[in-house]
Design a protein that fits this description.
Two copies of one chain form a homodimer.
Chain A lengths: L2 H8 L1 H13 L12 H4 L3 H12 L2 E2 L10 E3 L3 E2 L3 E2 L2 E5 L2 H17 L2 H15 L3 H12 L3 H8 L1 H18 L5 E7 L5 E12 L2 E5 L10 H9 L4 E4 L6 H16 L7 E3 L9 H6 L3 E7 L2 H13 L3 E5 L5 E4 L1 E2 L2 H13 L11 E5 L3 E3 L2 E3 L1 H16 L5 H5 L5 H12 L5 E4 L18 E4 L5 H4 L7 E7 L2 H15 L4 E4 L3 H14 L4 E3 L32 H5 L2 E8 L2
Parallel strand pairs in A: 1-5, 8-9, 8-11, 9-10, 11-12, 13-15, 13-21, 14-16, 15-20, 19-20, 21-22
Antiparallel strand pairs in A: 2-5, 3-4, 6-7, 7-23, 16-17, 18-19
Helix pairs in contact in A: 1-6, 2-9, 4-7, 6-9, 6-11, 7-8, 7-11, 8-9, 9-10, 14-15, 19-20
């Protein structure tokens, strides 16, 4: 049996399970999310940490520098030290030529072969989960557990989800058929038809600094499973996590006798950025992007003007409405955790809390607005400064710009009033960590110029409103203008929830989480279940992983033959 | 049982069959293509003709003029008489307001209900097949049989195909799920999730003058099945065929207790065109377009700049390569029929014949180039002037512009040499018909400025080339520059065919028909089997009916709830 046939056989159950999970959309995870020695091996953590340590102050040699123009790296740990890792930097020409060189072999494989090979790349790369976790922690600032889950099991599950979706779409119809039509009383004509999957071309995946693997695996694997070469262009501040994955994938491909250049690392530097040059290259036909709105909108324009497909996730402003609850304490616990978790640096975290100024109904009672705000502030503070779990939940601030924004708003809140000061948090073992507790501001509902834009990081607003309907109106308007990836609504009134669904989901096109309490947060997006990114509002065009996310990466073009 | 539930039950077999046909892609047709009394009733033809006659010189009353701004019509039969039918003309505001008014009811139906209702609209409208055939004949110039097939059974099958594709995509995953995750040793959390299909918004379908129903039904039914309101904007020269369908659909919807405004006729006039105004309206989120490249490219630009989905079919230049054959007579018969059929006014008809100047190999012999051209010209002439089938196969020229183009090229062929003159053809019963036999020109391979653009109508070029590879190079370059909807290649050499597939299908992104002979022509595109329109080259972005054709018309946006 060939190596590829063996991989097809080996991974057929996983592929089948992932396809079924996409259909059923209940809980499914191929890789366990707990960073546990019992699951991943008792030495896995220590080994991963050692592997990460060995990367520091060295050349990243897992990707050959053959043909590189330069060697460069500028990563710094938000926990307070430079990584001093340098990566090979290839020219645009080299990357494109190599991608095209690997293309024909790759697109000539069947979709089942491509899917199975890609699953194999993930299975083998999963051996690096702990190393990727430390790499993620020290580029993004995430606490270790989140870094492990988000960049390891969750990111890989999102990749597997995209593989399965691509496989389902392409195998939904017969690839060949003998088409026979009666064309006369006793006369038939038979046409031998082949329905070719024609991939569009090179797929550029531009990563972000906060979720360097989670936000990139969907595009990488959707692009590859549909037959396109992929260029992975990481954020210069968060290269290592995805570099480890790409290097591992290339090793697996090579081991299977395939050209590894079907997936390449397009590392660059902030002084000589590569993303726009690659995006405008005529060979690049598909762009995946996660990051800020300004550059994302430029890439969308480039794509629109040149007939390229684009799947973007830009900034949005997420909101929560607090109106009536069963148990206010549980609700505030939930909101506070969401606010502390990774210091608000998740694209899914709510920034604005719209709270009824007449108070929040709790069962038969009404808790006054002032008390709600005070209790929310107290819970945020308590969690963020908790000696055991505070620092790990907060993590550190990925970029200096976020710290500056936080400092500036703390010093000059303008029309807003500070309800909770941001404080320095000590990260054990990392005295120079860029770590702060959240800043909670209060601002009037008519000051949308203050709270209406995305203020990335641990910056939150409480906004008193006249009523549920008033809150809903403000949230709907905000999504229509700025987009959103999530929204949270707390209401015990079914008719209010129906109205929220009508306005937020159907008019403004953002998802809603109703009445979240307990160990589940609106920030979370579950692979194989939650469609992440509405794809329909100003926050971006991508949805992980709907049919459009894969079906726009290829065309079906027929060959018909009379024999 | 409600009327809608009854329709769901009644049409479930058809829906199931159509879904299976899309998967299997063998021959399938729900409506028989023969305009036969045995199938459609002995009086169907006479009744249809009478119904069409009764339309002439009257107001089209099947669509209420309530709220109309004007009543207007300018259709003329290419067979030589004005139709004098006037249609209600509604303002942009009226159309948009009514579409939005009908939207919520429609999108609140399940996809199975929408699909079943839409099948019902087609089943009932099929009673108008003969009337639609006469309407098509006397707006497009098609001969009766083609008019019947293309605007009736084939167009309806394309509509059914789109319904089934939309249904398959949306029902590919569970619409609701209780998602349960273990979050602690003995702790579980359950989230009640709904995956809402959120249609993008009003779907404008801009029709063309030559295939007013066939090219519009895919967009109309893809838009509707995915929950969007549809505005059908016909070409002012070919309103009646699609007006009959839209009016019938509205009657069925009304009969089922639904708001008929979910599908509206947006008739206009050439002096006050509505298409661009509607396309730029912010409520319009999806555009389907068939027609010339210039306006199509403008609509694509409008769509790209405003984040609208567009599915276009513009002009292309289709080519045939003639290099080696089993039986030259059968090949030339096939090519001649394709050239005569509807006077080359099919978007799928080849315009340019690239023929090896060293002759065409037939078995062991080589037929000299000159002889091939002479025999092709003779066969075209013989068929086009055939006393029994010539006039009916040719039909008439839809537009005066096509006749002018033909006349001008006949009088001033410039660098080309006339190999077959175009002659007037008499259409029995229609002395003023605009009907002509094809013009065949010969031009050198380096005169791409002459043959390289689309010259719509019965205008064909033979182009002598140095070799198969030379022909292929010219065809590939032409598709890359101008796009194409089809290509035909005649070669008995498997390695040449493989090379053609590589160049034409994978590089230039156009389909190929190899070695077509007998009662099947490259012009034809079979519903449920052939993916029509590559969607990947300059001829347009639409493919009837692939996954992207439906999945870009809605988003999946979740509602999650903790109870």
């Amino acid at each position: 049996m060939s190596k590829i046939a063996a991989v097809v056989e080996k991974n057929s159950d996983v592929l089948r399970e992932a396809v079924a999970a996409n259909q059923q959309r209940g809980f499914y995870a191929h890789w366990p999310e707990a960073p546990s020695g019992k699951i991943y091996g008792e030495t896995a953590n220590a080994d991963g940490q050692a592997a990460f340590q060995a990367r520091i102050n060295s050349v990243f040699e897992d990707i050959s520098a053959d043909g590189a123009e330069d060697s460069f790296g500028e990563e710094e740990s938000p926990f307070g030290f430079p990584l001093e890792i340098s990566y090979p930097v290839f020219s645009e020409d080299t990357l494109i030529t190599r991608a095209n060189g690997a293309w024909k072999e790759w697109r000539s494989l069947s979709v089942e072969e491509r899917a199975s090979i890609l699953i194999e790349t993930l299975e083998r790369a999963a051996a690096h989960f702990f190393e990727i976790a430390y790499a993620t922690m020290h580029t993004t600032g995430q606490g270790f557990v989140m870094a492990f889950q988000a960049s390891g099991p969750h990111a890989f599950d999102r990749g597997l989800e995209a593989i399965a979706q691509g496989y389902s779409q392409i195998s939904a119809f017969s690839p060949k058929v003998d088409w026979t039509k009666r064309v006369g009383r006793e006369e038939y004509v038979t046409v031998h038809k082949t329905f070719n999957i024609v991939p569009r071309g090179i797929n550029l995946v531009v990563g972000c600094s906060t979720f360097p693997t989670w936000n990139s695996t969907p595009g990488i694997f959707a692009g590859l499973v549909t037959g396109n070469p992929v260029l992975v262009k990481p954020h210069p501040g968060a290269v290592l996590p995805i570099a480890i994955l790409v290097a591992s994938m290339r090793g697996t491909l090579r081991d299977l006798g395939l050209n590894p250049d079907i997936v390449q690392l397009a590392s660059d530097s902030s002084r000589d950025p590569l993303a726009l040059r690659l995006a405008t290259n005529p060979n690049v036909k598909i762009i995946d992007y996660t990051g800020g709105t300004e550059f994302g909108s430029l890439l969308e324009k480039v794509a629109a003007e040149n007939g390229k497909a684009i799947f973007s996730e830009k900034s949005g402003v997420n909101s929560a409405i607090l109106d009536s609850v069963d148990n206010l304490d549980r609700v505030l616990d939930n909101l506070a955790f969401g606010a502390v978790l990774y210091s608000g640096q998740m694209c899914t975290a709510p920034q604005n809390f719209f709270i009824n100024r007449n108070g929040v109904r709790e069962g038969d009672a009404v808790v006054p607005y002032e008390e709600v705000v005070e209790r929310l502030a107290a819970k945020i503070k308590q969690l963020a400064t908790h000696p055991k779990i505070g620092a790990g939940t907060l993590g550190a601030l990925q970029s200096v710009a976020t710290l500056e924004r936080l400092t500036q708003l703390s010093e000059h809140p303008h029309d807003a009033r500070i309800r909770l000061e941001s404080e320095i948090v000590e990260q054990p073992g990392f005295p120079a960590a860029r770590s702060r507790t959240p800043l909670l501001l209060e601002v009037a509902a008519d000051k949308a110029d203050v709270y209406g834009k995305e203020l990335f990081g641990p910056i939150y607003f409480v906004i008193p409103t006249d009523s549920f309907e008033h809150s809903l109106e403000l949230v709907t308007a905000s999504i229509k203008e700025h987009g959103a990836l999530t929204s949270a609504v707390y209401s015990c009134d079914a008719s209010q929830r129906a109205l929220a669904e009508e306005k937020v989901v159907f008019e403004a096109a953002a998802p809603i989480a109703f009445n979240y309490v307990g160990n589940i947060w609106v920030n979370q997006s579950a692979s194989f279940s939650d469609f992440h990114g509405a794809g329909a509002n100003a926050a971006g065009t991508a949805t992980f992983t709907d049919a459009a996310f894969v079906s726009n990466r290829y065309n079906v073009i027929g060959t018909r033959e009379i024999r």
